Amino acid sequence: MSSTDWQDEKQQEVFEGTLKGLEARKRKDPKFTLETAQAELNHFYIQDGNNWLGRGELGDIVISATIAAYEHFISEWRSQSDSASNGPKQENPHASGNPSR
Length: 101
Prior knowledge:
Blueprint: H1 5-28, H2 34-49, H3 56-86
Helix pairs in contact: 1-3, 2-3
C-alpha cells in the first residue's frame, strides 16, 4: 500500500459522494437549477482561494474533489440540455416534394 493511497481513496470518495448528492438534488428539487449549481461552484472556488488559515492536506483534497464533481456535473447537465434543446431532427414530409400536398 502506497503512502498516498489514502489520498486517492479520499479524493474518489468525496468526488463520487458529491456527484451522487448533486444528481439526487437535480431529480428531487425542482428549484435546483443549473444556475444554482454554478453559483455553488463559484462559492467553492472562493473557498478554495481562502486558504489563509491552512486547511491541511485533507481539507485540500476535499475541496479539490468537490470542485471537480461540481465541474463534471455542470458540464454533463449542459451537454444534456444542449442535446435536448437541439433534439433529434425530424424530417418535413413535405420537403421532399411529396405530391400528396
